[in-house]
Amino acid sequence: MPSMTNGEKGPDSIRQQEEWRQAPDRKRRGSSLGLSRSRRWAMGIAVVAASIVTIAVGAQLGGRSYYLVSVLLVIYAIAPFFIAFELRRPQAREVVVLAVMCALAVVSRVAFIWIPHFKPMAAIVMLAAIALGARSGFLVGAVSALASGLIFGLGPWTPWQMLAFGAGGGLMGLLADVGVVPRSKLSPKMLVAVSTGGFLLVVLLVGPILDTCTLFTMMGTITPTAAAAVYLAGLPVNLIHGTATLATLLLAGNPLLGKLARVQMKYGLLRP
Amino acid sequence: MSSFESFHPLVTFFFFASVIVLGVCFLNPLFSAVGLLGAALMHLRTRGKEGLRLLGGMAIAFVVLSLLNPLFNPAGDTVLFTYGPNRPFTLQSLVFGMVTAAMFVTVILWFSSFNAIMTGEKITYLFGRMAPSLSLTLTMVLRLVPTYRRKLRSIMDARAGIGKSGATGPLTSRVRNGGALLSLLATWAFESALVTADSMRSRGFGLAGRTCFAAYRFTLRDGVLLAIEMLLTALCAVALMTGATAVEYFPVISLGCPTVLFWLALLSYVSLVLIPTFIDCWEHILWRFSLSRI
Predict the structure, then answer these.
(1) Do B131 and A63 touch (CB under 8 A)?
(2) What residues of chain A lie within 8 A of the CB of B181, using their CB?
(3) How confident is the prediction for chain A on average, in pLDDT?
(4) By the number of CB atoms within 10 A of the CB, which of A111, A117, A239, B10 ranks highest?
(5) ipTM, 2 decimals?
(6) In angstroms, rounded to a whole number, what is the distance separating the alpha carbons of residues A126 and A165?
């Protein structure tokens, strides 16, 4: 128990103490990324400036510099979320919940080991995003992709995977943040809507980002025909990926969200 | 196992970053060949016999990707044959495809050695001070994944014991079984994680003045090797920037007139990609020499 000064009366129950301790943190929650307005602007300007410089230098160099330029731009897109996470100085509980969600996302593949080509990671990332909000959703997606890269092998595709899964989680989290999707106890209709949304996110956003990586790393010359060929070849894979996401969201959606909500209620943590 | 990996993580990381970026940037077929050979050699040294499988797969990928490029890019003067409604398949485009395929294979092979040498803790050590919260999260994920995998196995065994194995049955029941497994695992994961979080807090997580765990020391030999790597990389970069290694592919392939800088860059690149091999040979010689004196 921290000792109280100035005759201030300390909170009595553990739950209240927790809320009292997190109070200043909660004030910052209103702004996106959890940063002050000036810092947000500084970061935005830095990202745009870095992108312009990179593209200009890349255009000057010509040749195959688009390969490096694309990877750098992807890294610039991810970096603000990570920098904001560092600047917020997250508490132990926040770190632990994020780590648990990422580990669940990475391991989830093992639960479906008897079904070939069934990848439930995107679904777990989206569920974490619904429960924890857009910011944490992006982080869970990006860190899961990075961790699975560290376990199964890093490659030039790792930044792309981080962006793809991060964006999928971030967008789903945004839907929950604006109140379109409730945090838990989805009605049957809502569950079907969320699952369909997850399917569409994978087929239209996550998959195409991964295909763009294939386009940039494998093709010698990028022409409209080459791009069309790569995206068309990726479509069946993305449809299977989307179906797996849909099935996982339908099956595990309510149980997992309920468990997350219960843990959040019990320990009073990470309420977006 | 190579003794190259016993160097400080910064030295090994710089090596990989340098050879991968240079391998992508060089468009000259001579440099591509050097990069490809260096990457393949390193890959075989770190992965041993099992590395042959990936190498075989990459050989196939090389052929397919090389042949694919001329289909999308009909530029070039020397037509090998035409197909379809008069579309040419040109030599220049084929060579350019081979260089691109070599780049792809080179990057994959470098990453294969990178993954063998740069373990998770080396990466979190390098970037830990830059991003402490992120590397803590990552370290925890890397520790939780094997734990969860074991837990999942035991849940699966227990369920198989009561006739709820997901290995058989129709697809829908297997998918439903997977969902149940996830839900069970999550229950256990959340509870045990919050105990961890409370324990971390009571041990002073986030307080000022905490130090990082470090298992690596930067010694003289690390400094020397890093300086050599930087010098060789800088020479290659200068050659790249000034266009000394530039090649024209279309309409006809012209390598240009090799200058002194070109040869210097080629020499630097060869030395750079062979650094791990040099180090291993040097250790081998030292070992032999010390044996003969015993």
Answers:
(1) no
(2) 111
(3) 83
(4) A111
(5) 0.85
(6) 9
